Structure to design on (548 residues):
């Protein structure tokens, strides 16, 4: 830390600062750039090499860096506030400097790893309060110890990078996370994180051994020095309320060298309704080695009975930790309604299963493992998403009404996914991690609408779908997945005390009874609410003020 420098070096520092500042950011003398004092502080706290990773809006690369990890084009060119400054640290000490200097200069912080936040909160703000974007893209090293079955990953690593380096170390080790290669491992773990291995090995957050963070004071903490309550909060409670994650140590799990996969599609005319009804209860009770989900979308078909030729297509997608013959027997016995043929199933290596599941629009193509490292390999889709959890099967009438809703939009404009739980997920207490919805859940519902054409209409439509589902999904409170965050559930005030009633509304939707425990952790580690955004966890004292 350089905070105790002698006055002579201060003078030296100012000269260095001025020269690098003018090289990097050519502001006219009259122009006041509010990020200036912040950048000056960074150089003071760190050293002048930090200027190589600081971008002001006047810097030619600012926009490129900003947009590179802006993964939902719905939130590009919006009315949101963009960062005063972007910093892409190359060392942990630079992250510490950013946290300290942002506070000293009354700037808030948004931290971005993969940039897939559903509401763009990791890089933009609905508040009119200047902030620094701390973009972790340069801190993304992954190192795997196959003997110890662990991996240490920098916060900026994507799932694709994590999966790739595990594959390079071993064909039979895996990390139980999600399905889209450019999703950030950090954001995913911070909200819980599920994938094809969830029914056997739990969530990503269940498989975290250690984490390093920078806290509000700029100190580096690990599991031991932060205490178990903060370690708990970071595994599902949304890290951005508590600090900046630097790296994770992960537990790896065993998978067979060869696994079985299939993806078959059925339309309404092919009796899809008679398949989804049993699917709701059967899929969660299959052996834990089976992941069987269903994706639903509106499409055009020449077998449609409607004048507009529209129908709903259901794609049953499966990964099985075992051979194709076994998977065939399991599905044929338990869910004969879907009419699976043995020839629909392929035996593939684990890495192929990851690529085909992970790149899911490319199921029939042939990506290479190296494509997992390419952050531009998958096209970014503009969408608005929501989620629900189902504990009682939806009736036939309810399902038919759902089809009518889906048929209101154009082909390809919506996707719904039912992701069954069960397996080991029934064995977790609600309080095991902040994500509460495991024991007894039949399946999670993910719904999205493409943000194209008349977007006002699209927003109205997804809200009406959400309204339609109310009688069929979890209640008191109606649950939502924090990683599918949705500002329709409410927002904190920009300034001043948090409205606790509002915060509790979305807080209980995401975390149920774990919300109050998260508030307790927040109160201990960030009582003045520095790490704050539209849906961050409020500290207790401020929560109480506006509650009275
Ligand atoms: C196409 C797609 C597929 C998905 N698939 C799955 C899936 O299979 N399973 C699943 O569980 N989820 C899935 N998700 C949801 C995903 O887990 C969340 O969107 C997640 O937040 C993305 O993490 P990120 O690092 O990419 O996002 P970011 O936008 O970078 O961050 C998300 C949140 O985490 C915070 N954050 C990021 N980095 C840090 C850090 N270093 N320190 C502190 N806070 C930080 C941000 O401030 C923000 O609040 C998917 C999302 C998309 C768009
Ligand atoms: C400047 O800081 C970086 C880390 O932030 C460090 O790697 C580098 O050695 C430092 N340079 C000098 C000259 O101190
Ligand atoms: C800033 O812009 C200049 C050109 O205007 C470029 O050379 C430089 O690499 C950019 N980025 C940083 C971090 O300086
Ligand atoms: C954002 O919008 C700009 C201007 O329309 C466009 O050039 C850019 O490609 C967009 N970027 C992303 C990531 O959507
Ligand atoms: C980065 O990861 C590689 C293996 O993937 C490892 O050999 C190397 O030591 C790591 N570097 C750092 C700085 O951790
Ligand atoms: C990997 O883990 C094993 C077993 O825990 C340990 O003995 C070894 O030193 C580790 N290797 C590295 C490179 O850290
Ligand atoms: C749909 O189910 C009905 C009744 O069970 C059956 O007669 C019909 O053949 C099925 N249609 C298709 C396409 O499988
Ligand atoms: C419907 O389309 C499929 C191919 O998409 C084609 O094989 C089939 O013959 C068509 N059926 C009719 C009735 O046109
Ligand atoms: C529906 O399909 C039929 C036959 O494929 C075609 O003649 C007709 O124009 C289509 N209707 C619409 C509204 O696209
Ligand atoms: C399964 O097939 C459907 C229809 O072809 C496709 O849209 C979907 O992306 C595929 N799913 C996977 C996981 O490949
Ligand atoms: C899961 O729920 C069942 C039924 O309510 C209950 O009997 C069981 O104890 C619960 N398990 C855990 C780990 O909470
Ligand atoms: C878009 O949809 C909204 C709501 O359905 C409607 O009021 C508006 O007129 C539409 N705008 C255009 C340009 O069609």
């Amino acid at each position: 830390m350089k905070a105790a420098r002698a006055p002579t070096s201060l003078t030296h520092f100012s000269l260095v600062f001025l020269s690098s500042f003018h090289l990097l950011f050519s502001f006219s003398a009259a122009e006041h750039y509010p990020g200036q004092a912040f950048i000056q502080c960074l150089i003071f706290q760190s050293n002048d090499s930090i200027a190589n990773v600081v971008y002001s809006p006047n810097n030619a690369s600012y926009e490129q860096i900003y947009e590179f990890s802006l993964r939902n084009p719905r939130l590009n060119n919006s009315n949101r506030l963009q960062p005063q400054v972007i910093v892409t640290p190359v060392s942990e000490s630079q992250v510490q400097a950013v946290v300290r200097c942002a506070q000293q200069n009354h700037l808030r912080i948004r931290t971005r790893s993969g940039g897939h936040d559903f509401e763009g909160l990791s890089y933009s703000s609905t508040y009119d309060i200047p902030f620094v974007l701390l973009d972790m893209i340069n801190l993304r090293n992954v190192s795997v110890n196959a003997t110890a079955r662990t991996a240490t990953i920098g916060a900026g690593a994507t799932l694709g990078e994590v999966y790739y380096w595990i594959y390079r170390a071993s064909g039979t080790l895996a990390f139980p996370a999600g399905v889209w290669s450019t999703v950030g491992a950090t954001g995913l773990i911070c909200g819980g994180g599920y994938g094809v291995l969830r029914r056997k090995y739990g969530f990503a957050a269940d498989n975290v051994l250690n984490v390093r963070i920078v806290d509000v004071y700029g100190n580096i903490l690990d599991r031991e020095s932060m205490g178990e309550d903060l370690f708990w909060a970071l595994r599902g409670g949304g890290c951005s309320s508590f600090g900046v994650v630097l790296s994770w140590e992960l537990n790896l799990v065993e998978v067979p060298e060869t696994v079985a996969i299939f993806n078959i599609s059925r339309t309404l005319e092919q009796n899809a309704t008679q398949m989804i009804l049993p699917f709701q209860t059967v899929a969660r009770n299959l052996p834990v080695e089976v992941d069987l989900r269903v994706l639903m979308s509106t499409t055009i078909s020449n077998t449609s009975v409607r004048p507009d030729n529209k129908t709903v297509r259901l794609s049953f997608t499966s990964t099985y930790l075992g051979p194709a013959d076994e998977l065939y027997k399991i599905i044929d016995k338990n869910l004969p309604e879907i009419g699976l043929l043995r020839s629909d199933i392929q035996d593939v290596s684990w890495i192929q299963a990851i690529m085909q599941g992970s790149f899911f629009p490319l199921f029939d193509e042939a990506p290479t493992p190296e494509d997992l490292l390419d952050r531009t390999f998958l096209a970014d889709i503009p969408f608005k998403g929501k989620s629900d959890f189902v504990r009682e099967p939806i009736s036939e009438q309810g399902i038919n009404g759902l089809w009518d809703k889906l048929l209101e939009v154009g082909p390809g404009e919506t996707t719904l996914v039912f992701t069954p739980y069960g397996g080991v997920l029934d064995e977790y207490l609600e309080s095991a991690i902040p994500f509460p919805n495991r024991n007894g859940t039949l399946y999670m519902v993910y719904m999205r609408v493409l943000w194209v054409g008349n977007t006002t209409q699209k927003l109205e439509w997804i809200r009406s779908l959400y309204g339609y589902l109310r009688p069929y999904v979890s209640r008191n409170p109606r649950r939502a997945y924090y990683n599918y965050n949705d500002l329709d559930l409410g927002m904190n005030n920009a300034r001043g005390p948090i409205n606790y009633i509002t915060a509790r509304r979305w807080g209980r939707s995401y975390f149920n009874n774990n919300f109050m425990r998260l508030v307790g952790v927040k109160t201990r580690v960030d009582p003045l609410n520095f790490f704050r955004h539209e849906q961050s966890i409020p500290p207790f004292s401020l929560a109480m003020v506006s509650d009275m």
Observations:
- The first strand starts at residue 54 and ends at 55.
- The two ends are 42 Å apart (CA to CA).
- The chain has 17 helices and 18 strands.
- The first helix runs from residue 7 to 24.
